[in-house]
Fold these 3 entries.
Entry 1:
Amino acid sequence: MTQKFLSGALETKVGKVPLVSSSLTRDDVTGAWRARWGIGRMTYSIDPGLYALGNPGGSSPVLVTANYKLTFDRLRQALTGGDFWILVLDTKGINVWCAAGKGTFGTEELVERIEKSGLARLVDHRELILPQLGAPGVAAHLVKQLSGFRVVYGPVRGEDIKPFLAAGKKATGEMRRKNFPLTERFALIPIELVAGGKALFFLFLALVLLGGFLGGQAFWPNVLRHAPPAGSALGLSLFMGAVLVPVLLPWLPGRAFSAKGLSVSIFGLVVFLAGFGQEARTAGDLFTILGLALLIPAIAAFLAMNFTGASTYTSLSGVKREMRFALPLEIGGGFLGVVLWLGGFFVS
C-alpha cells in the first residue's frame, strides 16, 4: 500500500530500502490525532520490513520496533540528525509493550523479519537494539542462535536512544524506568471517551425510549422527564471512569483499578444525588433515582479497568484475577440498577 510518510528510497545491495525522515508531516500529526480519538485506530499501522533514516551504512545501528504508526513516528522523531536502520516487526498495529505480551513482538517474527530484509548483507555488525518493553516477547538467546544477531535492550523511551548510544550502549537507571506522568495518562483519555461514550449513548437511548413508553404521561413529556437524570448519570459515570481515573490514578486508593473507579465514583454519586435527589417525591421516583445512582459506580469501575496498561505494577495474571472478582460485581450492580429503575414505573 502507499505510505505517504516515506521520503524516498535508499539504493542498497539488497535493493531499494524505504527512506524516512525524522520530521513529521501534517498528515502524520493529523493521523496521530485521529488514532488518539479512535478514528481508524485499528488500521493505523505501517508495512513491516526494513527502513532507512538518514544515510545508514554497514556500521549504522539497527533499531527494532513495532508497526503501530504512533510508535514508529515517536521513534523516528527521536533520531534527528542520525543514520539508522529501523527494522519494523508485524505486530498487527499494536504498540511494543502490548505486542510483546500478545506474542506478536516476538522471537519468531524478529528472526523471520531479519531474514526477509536481507539485513545480514547490509550491516557489518551483528547487533540489534530492541526497546526494553519488548523484552517479555523475545528470547534473546534464540535470536542469536537462529539469526546470528545479538540482542541489546535499549532504553524505555525513544528520546533516550541517542544518549544511550553515545554512552556506549549503557543505560542509566532513569532510562530503564517507565513512568506514566499526567501528560501520558491524559493522552489515553480521548479513545476511552469515544469507546465508552458510544456504548453509553445506546444505553441512554434505551432508557429514554423505555421511559417514554412506560411513564405515566404522553410519550414526549415522559422522554423530557427521564432524559436529564439518565443522561446525567451516564455522563457522570463516563467522566468518572474515563477521565478522573487516569488523571488521579497515582492518588486513588487501592491497587485494583475497579476499586479506583469505585472510589472516584463517590464524587459522581454526590453530584447526581444533589442534582436529582430532591425529585424523588414518591416511592416510584425513589426507585428510579436509586437505580440510576447504582449505574454510576458500576460503569465507572468497569471503565477504570481499561487503564490497566497505564501503570507499572499490573500484570496479565493480576488483570485476569481482578476481572474474575470485579466483573461479576460490576455486571450485578448495573443489572440491579436497571431493575430498580424499571421498578420505579410499577411502584406508586
Entry 2:
Amino acid sequence: MPNHPADILSAWMALEALSPQTFRRRSEFRLGKRRVLNFDMHNPPWTDCDARDEESVCFYQVVFGTIRMEKAFDRLTETYGDQRPERPMADGEAIVATVTVDERGVPAGSASASVSCFAWALPFALDRRLDRLDGWTRARQALRKGLRARLERIDPEGELMPLDGPVLARAYEWLLEQLGVDREMVVPPAFCVRSPRRDKASPPPDPLLLDSFFLDDLVAARGLFLEDEAPPALRSYLQAAKPATQLPLGSQEPASLNAARRLTLPRRFPPARWPARGRRPLVLNQQLAVNAAMCADAARPLLAVNGPPGTGKTTILRDIVAANVVRRAEAMASFEHPSAAFSPYLGNVVKVDGRRLGYFPVAPEIRGFEMLVVSSNNKAVENVTAELPGMEAIAEDALTLRYFKTVSDHLLAPRRQWRIME
C-alpha cells in the first residue's frame, strides 16, 4: 500500500524536529562584532553598572539553557533502537530557548523570546507520540507568549522593566516545566551573545539559529494534504499525482527521440541566453533541460536534472535566469506607461528594520518570474547566488551589460560586480 503524502510529511517533520542546530564550542557564536560572555542568571551582565559602557548600545541574547545531545541521543536510541553496524555519535549541545534584551536588560519586544522545537518535541518522541509534532506551530506561539508574560513587567510609568535574577529564574523553571524535558539532559543558562547596534532605534539582531529552516513549511504542507488543497507541484513532488505527460529523454527509444525533437523546435528556445565567458553555447542535453524548464506548466510542474559535479547544472540555471529576465522585460514593455504596472495605494504597509513603509502592489502580469535557489547544502546555494552577479560570470565583451548593479554592489562588495564602466 503506498504511503499517504501526509504520513510522509509527518515522518519528515519528525526528522527535522529531532535534528536541531547544535554547537560544540561557545566560540561558534562569534560573528563580526558579536561577543560571547559568561552568564550568571542571578547577576546578569546588564546589572553591572561599573562594567557597562553607557556610551554604547547593544543587545544580549541569553542562551536560556541547552540540551546535551549525547544524553538525548542515547535516550532516543533506547526508545527506538538502532540496528546500524556503525552507529553515529551525537555530541555538542542544542539550545532550549533564547531571551533577547537591550543593554539595560529590557526585553526586546516580540523578539524577546524564542523556543526550540527540539526541546519541545523530545519528550513527545521519548513517549512514542510523534503524531503530536504537527502541533508545533501552535505550541511555539503559546510557549513564546507564556515566556514573554513571565519576563515582561511594567513599572508605574507604563514602561518595561529590566530583567533581574529572580525573574529569569522563575521564567526558566516555568519553561522547563512546560516542555517536560528531563532535567538530567539540560544545562542551565551559562552564556549569552552580546551584539552591538548602531543606535537606540536599531532593531534586535537576527535570532540565533535553533531549528530547521523549513519545519513550518512541512507543517503547512501536511495541512494542505489533509484538507485536500495541495497544489500540483507539491502533489507531484510527493508522487501523489502522476504528470499527465512525461518527457523520456536520454535514450534511443522512439519516444525519447520524439520528445527531444519536440524540445529542439525553434519555438521551444528561450529568446535569450546567458552571455557566458567565451560565448560558448550549451551542449544538447543542457539546452534540452533549459527548453523543458521554460515549457513547464500545471500538468508538468517539476523537472529533474541529474548529474555529478562539474557537468554544467549551474550553467543551466544561468540560462533559465536569462530567459526569465527577458520574459519579464517583455511583460513590462506591454504597459503603455510604467505607472500602469502598479496598483493604486490602498494602505499596503510592510515593516522594514522596525519602520512601516507603504508600497504599491505590482501588477500580476509581471509577477511569477521569481527564482528561488534552495539546497540541503548551504554552500551550494551560496556558490550559485554569489557567482551570478560576479564580473567573472559574463563574457569579456559584454561591456555594457549591467543589471541591478547597485543591489549587487551592496550585497557582495568588495567583489567586482556588473558595475557601470567609467
Entry 3:
Amino acid sequence: MPRPSLERLLLAEASSGVGTFEFDLASGQWRLSPYAAVLFGFTPQSAPDSFAEWERNIVAVDVPKLHAAETAAKNT
C-alpha cells in the first residue's frame, strides 16, 4: 500500500493534470508516476524506461533541450 504522502501526490497529479518523472543518470532509466505515463500516451504498465523510446513521444523541439539537460547534469 502506498505511503499516505505518496498517495496524496498521486491524487494531486491526477486532479491537476500533471505527472512527475525522474531520470537516473547512472542507469539511464526513467522513473515516472502513473499519471505521467498516461500524459505521454502509455499505460502505467507499458511505459518505456529508456530515453530512446520516450523520444518518440516528446515534442520534437524539446528533445535537444532534454539532451542538453542530461549532458549538463552529467557534468556537474
